[in-house]
Amino acid sequence: MGRTTLIEHDVPVEMRDGTVLRADVWRPADGPPAPAVLFRTPYGKSTLGLATLTPAQCVDRGYAAVVQDTRGRFSSEGAWAPLDWSQEGPDGYDTVEWTAEQPWCDGNVAMAGTSYQAIVQWLAAMEKPPHLRAIAPTMSTSAPFDAEQLGGSLRLDHLTSWLGLTALEWVQRRAAAGDPVDGAVVAEVVQLLTTPEVPLRRWPLSTILDFDGFPGRLRDIFAGRVATVADYRLGEVGVPTFSVGGWYDVFSYGTIELHRAMRAQDPVAGRHELVMGPWVHSGQLPQVQGEVNTGLYGSAQGARLADLHLDFFDRHLRPAGESADREPGGHVRYFLFGDDTWHRATTWPPPEAVDSLWYLAGGDGDGRLLPEAPQLPASRDTFTYDPEDPVPSHGGRVLQLGRLVAGPHDQSHLEARPDVLCYTSEPLTAPLDVVGRQRLRLRFGSDAPATAVVAKLTDVHPDGRSLLVAEASLRLEAEGDGPADEPFDADLLLGDTAWRFAPGHRLRVHVTSSNFPHLDRHPNVPGPVGEADRCCPAQQSVWYGGPYASVLRLQTLPAPDAGEAR
């Protein structure tokens, strides 16, 4: 509609302890007091440019927008400590209430933002600020859901590259204050951002960024003194939520589980919504993801993501009469790869999704993926996993701050390695819509007392490309004095997706024991993550037939369904 916008820079907002945080305020230049949307970011308020929702889009719809640097970051006062979540809840509460008291605000406040900006929304909502009406966290997770997704592994490149990125501003602030940081710290931070595989190959990992005074030492994380992901008291979050995620987001599982948990505990229907797009973890959500162009509707703009946010805010921040023309809320919207359309469901997974079992089996040197249990004697396929020669990461749910690429990428060059086992179906004769949560149960053997298994689900095209659809990891450790040759029961969470396998395409499961540097390398020796100072090779095996069943459990729709035409 177009409005004249008034922007005030570096507006001081005093916290309860006297610390002053600064914000930019965007608001309509005239008119009555309006509802406000609060963004809190550690990445610099002046550079906030999210594809999900921008301050300018808020103003165009008649909202004010407050964009604040979090404590100790950029223009805000206070001390910055990466991964110290204790202050974000109180600071969020104080900023919500400050916003509600301003003469340009009508007393109704919502929060929005991506990743860290999403996590601080949950932490603020737990504090129950009286004027907070709704939150819209994009790509967020919580500690228990993140641990379940990772199966005990560590997102190594993600963690170290993020610490390196945030440390750059910390280094600059120290230098400006006349307390320059040791050159060795600066050199290691730069190396983590430019050639991360060099420091990430160290044993033990706890020696990375192991400098006195550095505000994010891995040693503290491994010892449990610092939590990489926040945890929430969801029972104390009493506001409606609009959760947005991507199938290739590192936090895809957490985003979905947070939505499901909020919906399950809320007696009022229709207050919690979920959007799952084709996206990787990013503030920018274009239509090209990995090696796939998802078409016009695959971008944030094509999905009308900003409008969906503002429609949600209208429902919960404006009087009923002002939002009467808006459609009712409570939907799940998801993007179906391969059909490249948006679909709706009443819940996630969609209630019409059914289980489809596929069984792993060997045969003539090539593993098979069968729709019925094979009548075979017990057998196994083997490979050697050497932590000094790990399978390199390529695509998937990774963070792209370091040197990795995210999204649906071809895995065929990895599948040619001798330490990757592949199990492939016959070409499909009809479309297969895999929509929901996917799991893999392996009978997995190892001659090491502790090890790891990594699995991927791929879409094998007629031209031989093997595009990554979903992935999982699990750390394994023998218990008790059971038979040394008895395989582990390895239940791997491949996570959620919505992917159409076209006729002529094949399903494939590939199994290995590493995905480096996205995940830490298991050394094949017992002990806590990150503390091993040595490693050794291990002989690994996948069992099938007889009493051993290795099974891929997909959730599929009964028949292809037409998506939204827009």
Automatic annotation (TrEMBL):
InterPro entries: AB_hydrolase_fold, CocE/Ser_esterase, Galactose-bd-like_sf, Xaa-Pro-like_dom, Xaa-Pro_dipept_C, Xaa-Pro_dipeptidyl-ppase/CocE. SUPFAM superfamilies: alpha/beta-Hydrolases, Galactose-binding domain-like. Residues 310-553 form the Xaa-Pro dipeptidyl-peptidase C-terminal domain. Keywords: Hydrolase. Coiled coil: none annotated. GO terms for molecular function: dipeptidyl-peptidase activity. PANTHER family: COCE_NOND FAMILY, PUTATIVE (AFU_ORTHOLOGUE AFUA_7G00600)-RELATED, PEPTIDASE S9 PROLYL OLIGOPEPTIDASE. This is CocE/NonD family hydrolase. It comes from Streptomyces cavourensis.
